[in-house]
Specification:
The complex is a heterodimer. Chain A folds into 2 domains: 37 residues, no CATH class; 156 residues, Nitrile hydratase alpha /Thiocyanate hydrolase gamma (Nitrile Hydratase, Chain A, Alpha-Beta Complex). In chain A, helix 3 crosses helix 4. By secondary structure, chain A is of the alpha/beta class. Chain B is an alpha+beta fold. Chain B has a 5-stranded antiparallel beta sheet with strand order 4-3-2-1-5. The two termini of chain B are 39 Å apart. The longest helix of chain B is centred in the middle third of the chain and has 15 residues. The radius of gyration of chain B is 21 Å and the shape is globular. Classes of the chains: A alpha/beta, B alpha+beta. Chains A and B meet through helix 1, helix 2, helix 7, helix 8 and strand 3 of A and helix 1, helix 2, helix 4, helix 6 and strand 2 of B.
């Protein structure tokens, strides 16, 4: 996938970087400081097992199950753990609910804090300097870059994840999906809607 | 320290230009996978904590921090920690050749099974405290100015600003001490700031919540009447 020069994703990294990483891995393996199967397990876990479908399940369940939603708002860590999504970078989870009056948006201005247990690893843009710098100071313009235009009377509440608390946005359920199943609803829950840069998908966008 | 990582409110960094959600891979190249896995695996050796690893990435020239891609900053931090914690000798990194054979015998090197267990269980940052929290919900608090050379999680854009405590989160490991290897806790608050108090005139109808530890804050005297 091609990238612009300025976005620093380095899809085709200079070979000295690849060599540097290979050399480091060889050193650590040879010294017995890491095990090859452990490395592969870590990669497999975050590349194929833990990702935003976890969070979409959580949100869809909250939309149809009032008791679960209440538990999620009170103690998201426990509510999510009960669904089997416990672990690293989700130990102290807070769910923040969008309402007709308030929209929530999550950022980490100091590094890249993100609720791994429910969303997996953060996308490149979430970790980038432009998002980290602007989300706190000009959230509306940031959301517009994602194609999201919020009415000016809706307040935007930005959560800067400076501590080990992790934030999951609970988007509003789209109109016209009242009798949908949990499975069908979860397809409306994009990763970006759980960060807050977008709203949940419209029913007509997924059929 | 307010290095290249302390980005809230900085200008001139350009558009976000996000990749489409359904087309973005978790990793963009093989070396990113390896840096991620090496960082987590060596972190499980217990020689450093999360604040020490954040601090290692931050201790770079700001121009280098901003120029690097995300996982390049992880690689910088990892190499630094491995040498500082005596897991690698500096010349081993330089010459890409093992000069001191074998890992220290007291280290427990996790295998795949141990890794899964650690990833599933995680680790809480809360810590017991005898002291009662100083601030209450609704208190107006000011973020102290600080000019420290060490690791801190008080973003510079909030320093000097006044906000309102909206939640008390209990006592959490305090990064300024934890990054020095001392497991000291402090009460953690969520503080709400109106946009104007952080930026002056900017986008309307927005606010920012920041998690701040007690030593970062001072009470603002209530106005009489």
């Amino acid at each position: 996938m091609p990238h612009n020069d300025h976005d620093h994703n380095h899809t085709e990294p200079p070979s000295d970087l690849e060599l540097r990483v290979k050399a480091l891995e060889s050193l650590l393996l040879e010294k017995g400081l890491v095990k090859a199967d452990a490395l592969n397990t870590i990669i497999d876990t975050y590349e194929t097992k833990i990702g935003p479908r976890n969070g979409a399940h959580v949100v869809a369940k909250a939309w149809i199950d009032g008791d679960f939603k209440k538990a999620l708002i009170e103690d998201a860590g426990a509510a999510v753990a009960a669904l089997g999504y416990a672990g690293r970078q989700g130990e102290q989870l807070q769910a923040v609910e969008n309402t007709p009056e308030t929209h929530n948006l999550v950022v980490c201005t100091l590094c890249s804090c993100y609720p791994w247990t429910v969303l997996g690893l953060p996308p490149a843009w979430y970790k980038s300097a432009p998002y980290r710098s602007r989300a706190v100071s000009e959230p509306r313009s940031v959301m517009e870059e994602f194609g999201t235009e919020l009415d000016s009377n809706i307040k935007i509440r930005v959560w800067d994840s400076t501590s080990e608390l992790r934030y999951l946005v609970l988007p509003m359920q789209p109109m016209g999906t009242e009798n949908w199943s949990e499975d069908k609803l979860s397809a409306l829950v994009s990763r970006n809607s759980m960060i807050g840069v977008e709203l949940a998908r419209n029913p007509e966008d997924v059929n | 320290m307010n290095g290249g990582h302390d980005l809230g409110g900085r200008q001139g960094l350009g558009p976000i230009a996000p990749e489409a959600e359904d087309r973005e891979p978790v990793f963009h190249s093989e070396w990113e996978r390896r840096v991620f896995a090496l960082t987590l695996a060596t972190g499980m050796l217990g020689k450093w904590n999360i604040d020490e690893s954040r601090s290692a990435r931050e201790r770079q020239h700001p121009a280098a921090y901003l120029q690097n891609s995300y996982y390049e900053n992880w690689l910088e931090g990892l190499e630094k920690l491995l040498v500082e914690k005596d897991l690698l000798a500096a010349d081993e990194l330089l010459y890409k050749k093992v000069s001191v054979a074998g890992a220290a015998p007291e280290l427990r090197i996790p295998d795949a099974e141990a890794v899964l267990k650690i990833l599933r269980s995680g680790g809480s940052s809360t810590i017991e405290s005898e002291a009662a929290p100083l601030f209450n919900i609704g208190d107006r608090v000011k973020v102290r100015k600080q000019y420290s050379s060490g690791h801190s999680r008080a973003p510079s854009y909030a320093q000097g600003a006044v906000g309102t405590v909206i939640r008390r989160n209990g006592c959490h490991l305090y990064p300024d001490e934890v990054s020095q290897g001392r497991a000291i806790g402090e009460h953690l608050y969520t503080v709400l700031f109106a946009n104007q108090s952080l930026w002056g005139k900017t986008e309307e109808n927005a606010e920012v919540c920041i998690d701040l530890w007690q030593p970062y804050l001072s009470i603002v005297a209530k106005e009489s009447g």
